[in-house]
Design goal:
By secondary structure, the protein is an all-beta fold. The chain contains 2 helices and 73 strands.
Length: 980
């Protein structure tokens, strides 16, 4: 963070908030450069946190600012300011209790996360676990207590800048803080821990990720393919080296395995970007990158980043693309620096307006994806939080989101800053912040926007804590960040934490934790649960057995018995459960061990085994990926030297100079002349038809008459030989791939592969050959797989939901896969776009839910059929009751009558969602046309006769019939043709 001089503040006039969406993000462009990558420098598993002795606290200190880029552009009047908030707040408060108090350091770095049963509070160098009623379950203890016995900087140092998140997809907790070395100048590390269970006081898988430079201001985000963490990197002299974004291999960390790290530095153009952070249990579309956000290069844009990561072994990679998202123009509060006033002192506070504020919260609603974020802007002197909702709507599943609504909350002349925002499962938005002015001491407050409110409008605020103290002693650092999160047990309750001062002073801050919810969001009372497999994958040689632990956790409502089964196993294989039915407890998941056994004749391949968990009211699935290896070449990448190979003759060694992949390749011959053949060989026995493949690079400055590379495959059983690589002499210095079939006629035969390089010994033109990546891949019959994402969608009756169906071709399959779905409840219809998929591809399954569909959870089966091949994928549709309202319909929809007659339409008012109000009816015409009357003109439900007189006009008219009840409206149209 930065100690920036205030370069000037311009008074600006308030303007009414705009409700128009800002559209048109620019095209994505690749940015950044690869930074840290590889593996964690150390990992292990801790004892239960509740059993670890607390570490010693660190001495008092102030965490200094570090300079950040500030968006350019002229000072402007805010065009979307909300200058007032009349009425009363609709949010209802639940809990309000003291969080962690002063730790001897400043600022507080107030942060927290809520899970199904616990709230984990975290500040600079302390962590505490609460029950949801505020009862302390653990701590507060120094955060590095979590790394006790781990060794290195993570155990020794307790440097703070911590964040904690609850991973709702896995029912785990993720904790992070940095370690800066004894003098703050290295060695640097990010210390990350993932709980082994849903209990935040239990044991953790612990990791240290080494960094070459100071990784300041780290912010953590949950995404299905990785734990993403953004940071600002600085050199040891304090020079800003750019915003950096990193991905940690989530799958490996959930299983306590050595995890990979991939980072990209976004250059010094950007500072303090935030990762997209998933709320809820509906994941983003399959394969979607983590969308991240930062202030743009000018004051009319935000910078949107897409972080693509690939964890494929031997091919791990990452890319970062950026696009500019237009927003309403703004002026950065305090020019990004210190200017927030307090009552009773001239000491001002840091605005941190040079960055977007944690979190960039994400939700997938099926018919759209939403992200919310806030940052501090100038509104004519005071600072105020600009809050923004960005959306992306199907069929788009990639690309930057665009602004759906935005506003600057400034209902009076007080200063508001240090914001954090999130969205509940109903689409309501909460905004928490610090508040101060020359006439008040810093307080904690929050406001909210219900989904039924006008776009861009926040309701009146609620003060969580009236601060009793102003910060003095020359200390301007305040907060650093605060934290708004959403309770996963109901999807409705917001939990917010921030700092205040109980008395005038410095280094004496206190944090507070409060929860609240909005009336339009109904907490879930229906029973529901999560299912996960640990580990989620295994490689099993046939014959043999392997196992995984299936965990069932309660996520909503009362506990229920859950029956377990498995499908998708290879032919002849079996799966058994130690408990075929389990019931999760109130605070702890239930577990069952699934054991998979495969016979000797199992066909090699990768099998996605579907674990079906069926409760009394809902069902979910998890995938366990089983890999049955086929015949393999030992050490085909030569990473273990020449292990597995026999040197037949001549000169054979391993080189690390420019291998095809990895770190090594086999070198036959030498850069100095050798005489005759140099060769290596390996014997193997294929168990099924396969393809043999390898790469070679020959350096041959002579001709094939004298020097060459060659390879042969000898069938010892049939005494026949196949020339895989004919004699070849080139000097292109490029890698060339060679493949040859190993047909069914060779299955069970003893084969020998020989790789050779021949040199005639002439000193002037030495020939040598490098070989690498020798593989034997089983030949797979043409087939396809089918999957649905997300696994579960919710839709309010009367709306719609969509799923992405994906087929993946296997063994060269290129047929047409026809799609269908079964299990739809009454009133739900489906459409597929496209209706079939050729080979590999995707289709969108849109489900239209009638207003009359009975709410409930429905297990659907999506089927893909191509000739005799057929596969299914499960999907769940959760239909929820609509909000109170009504639907107006009319019959018939089209009528024709001669002029001078009276005709009748039957108008029907159907209440939905428990609506009990009175509906008033009226009609408008597309032009000056017929008139009519309703009998009755007002009703609660049922039918009204709408009689139309055709005396005056000829022609065809569109009549719009509208029902109104307070702010609620519903319309329908009918057509009337008046003839002579």
């Amino acid at each position: 963070m930065s100690m920036l001089a205030i370069v000037g503040i311009m008074l600006i006039a308030a303007a009414p908030p705009s409700t128009a969406a800002v559209r048109g993000a620019t095209a994505e462009k690749k940015v950044g450069r690869r930074a840290e990558h590889g593996k964690a420098s150390h990992n292990d598993t801790s004892a239960p946190l509740r059993e670890i002795r607390a570490a010693r606290p660190v001495p008092r200190r102030e965490h200094p600012d570090s300079p950040m880029p500030v968006p350019g552009g002229p000072l402007v009047a805010d065009p979307v300011v909300q200058p007032s908030a009349p009425g009363a707040p609709s949010a209802s408060s639940a809990t309000n209790f003291a969080g962690i108090g002063v730790t001897g350091s400043a600022p507080s770095d107030a942060n927290g996360a809520v899970g199904p049963n616990d709230y984990v509070d975290m500040v600079n160098a302390r962590i505490q676990v609460f029950a949801k009623d505020g009862t302390t379950l653990l701590g507060p203890v120094p955060t590095n207590t979590l790394w006790s016995g781990f060794g290195g900087e993570c155990e020794t140092n307790d440097d703070g800048d911590g964040t904690v998140r609850y991973d709702a997809l896995a029912d785990r907790w993720v904790v992070s803080q940095f370690a800066l070395g004894p003098s703050g100048k290295g060695p640097f590390a990010q210390c990350v821990a993932v709980s082994t269970t849903s209990d935040p006081t239990g044991s953790y898988y612990r990791y240290a990720f080494a960094f070459a430079n100071f990784p300041d201001y780290p912010k953590l985000g949950i995404w299905p393919d990785a734990y993403y963490q953004t940071m600002n990197t600085f050199g040891t002299t304090g020079s800003f080296l750019g915003a950096e974004t990193c991905a940690y291999d989530r799958n490996m960390m959930l299983n306590g395995q050595l995890a990979g790290l991939q980072c990209i530095n976004a250059t010094t153009t950007y500072g303090a970007i935030l990762p997209g952070d998933l709320d809820g249990t509906t994941p983003p579309p399959a394969g979607a990158p983590d969308m991240q956000i930062g202030l743009g290069t000018d004051n009319t844009h935000l910078a949107s980043f897409a972080f693509h990561v690939d964890w494929t072994p031997g091919n791990a990679s990452a890319t970062l693309t950026e696009s500019d998202v237009p927003v309403a123009a703004y002026s950065t509060a305090c020019a990004g620096g210190v200017c927030v006033p307090q009552l009773g002192t001239s000491q001002q506070l840091d605005s941190l307006a040079d960055r977007v504020m944690y979190r960039y919260a994400y939700r997938n609603f099926g018919d759209h994806e939403s992200w919310v974020v806030t940052y501090s802007v100038d509104v004519g002197g005071p600072s105020a939080p600009r809050w923004t909702e960005l959306r992306r709507t199907p069929p788009a599943t990639t690309g930057s989101p665009v602004v759906y609504q935005q506003s600057t909350y400034a209902p009076d002349s007080n200063w508001r800053w240090m914001g954090s925002t999130a969205m509940d499962a109903a689409g309501d938005i909460a905004l928490g912040y610090s508040e101060s002015s020359p006439t008040m001491k810093p307080a904690i407050a929050y406001s909210g926007h219900q989904r039924t409110d006008a776009l861009g409008v926040m309701e009146p605020e609620t003060v969580l804590v009236h601060g009793a103290g102003a910060q003095t002693g020359g200390l301007n650092r305040w907060g650093d960040y605060s934290s708004m999160s959403v309770d996963p047990s109901d999807g409705c309750t917001f939990w917010y934490t921030n700092q205040f001062l109980p008395a005038d002073g410095s280094f004496n801050w206190q944090t507070q934790v409060g929860s609240f919810s909005f009336p339009a969001c109904a907490p879930r009372s229906d029973p529901d649960f999560s299912v996960a497999a640990t580990p989620p994958a295994a490689t099993l040689a046939a014959p043999g057995s392997t196992s995984t632990t299936v965990s069932i956790g309660r996520t909503a409502g009362p506990a229920q018995a859950v029956a377990l089964s498995a499908s998708g196993l290879p032919a002849g294989a079996s799966a058994t459960f130690s408990s075929a039915s389990v019931t999760p407890g109130a605070t702890q998941p239930a577990t069952s061990t699934m054991t998979v056994t495969v016979p000797a004749a199992t066909v090699p391949g990768t099998y996605p085994v579907t674990i079906s968990a069926t409760g009394t009211s809902t069902s979910h699935t998890a995938t366990f990926t089983l890999t049955v290896p086929g015949p393999t070449i030992t050490n085909g990448g030569f990473e273990s030297g020449l292990t597995g190979w026999t040197t037949a003759i001549g000169s054979a060694s391993v080189t690390s100079s420019a291998p095809h992949t990895g770190t090594a390749a086999a070198l036959l011959g030498a850069a100095t002349a050798t005489n005759g053949d140099s060769s290596i060989r390996q014997a193997f026995t294929p168990t099924q038809p396969s393809t043999l493949s390898f790469w070679y690079q020959v350096t041959c400055p002579d001709s094939v008459t004298y020097d060459w590379a060659t390879a042969t495959l000898y069938d010892n059983t049939a005494a026949t030989q196949t020339t895989v690589l004919p004699k070849t002499c080139t000097n292109s210095h490029s890698w060339v791939n060679v493949t040859t079939p190993v047909p069914a006629s060779m299955v069970g035969h003893a084969l020998t592969l020989t790789l050779t390089s021949h040199d005639d010994g002439y000193p002037g033109d030495p020939t040598f050959t490098t070989y690498d990546d020798v593989t034997l891949v089983p030949t797979t019959a043409p087939d396809f797989s089918l999957s649905s994402s997300p696994a579960s969608q919710s839709a309010v009756a009367g709306t719609s939901a969509s799923y992405t169906l994906t087929t993946a071709a296997v063994g060269g399959f290129n047929g047409q896969v026809a799609l269908s779905v079964s299990g739809l409840p009454t009133g739900v219809t489906s459409t597929f776009t496209p209706t079939s998929i050729a080979g590999s591809g995707t289709s969108t399954m849109a489900l239209t839910v009638a207003a009359t569909t009975v709410p409930g959870t429905y297990a659907l089966t999506v089927t893909g059929t191509s000739g005799t091949l057929s596969h299914t994928a499960p999907a769940t549709l959760v239909v929820t009751p609509p909000p109170p309202g009504f639907v107006v319909t009319a019959t018939p929809t089209t009528q024709s009558a001669p002029r001078g007659t009276t005709i009748t339409y039957v108008v029907t008012v159907t209440p939905v969602g428990g609506f009990t109000g009175t509906v008033s009816l009226r009609m408008t015409s597309s032009s000056s046309g017929p008139t009519g009357a309703f009998a009755p003109v007002s009703l609660k439900s049922g039918n009204s006769a709408f009689k139309v007189n055709t005396r005056r006009t000829l022609g065809t008219f569109t009549l719009t019939i509208t029902g109104t009840s307070g702010a609620l409206k519903s319309s329908t149209t009918v057509t009337l043709t008046v003839t002579t």
